[in-house]
Amino acid sequence: MERVASHYHLPVVDIGKTITDKIQKGELTWEEYGLDYVHPTPLGHEIITSELLNLFQEKEQKEKCDGRLLSGNPRIFRSIPKFLYYGFV
After folding, report:
1. I want to staple 22 with a disulfide (CB 3.0 to 4.6 A). Which of 26, 28, 57, 74 is the partner?
2. pLDDT > 90: percent of the chain
């Protein structure tokens, strides 16, 4: 996942690493995070949402510093057939 994101210059949110780190620090258990080790509980959804919001806020802050407004990265779409994303960009 990180190799693909790096290739297209896209950010990555590694929820698995975040959850594992919290469990290792004793801040969370698997049972608190997930109903079946796959589907998140309400607390699990809060953690995921928090990580995504952090990413968006960091990106927005960086782009404000660069003098740009959130412009996206259309480069990824160059290698995807247009019919797969047409109308969504």
Report:
1. 28
2. 37
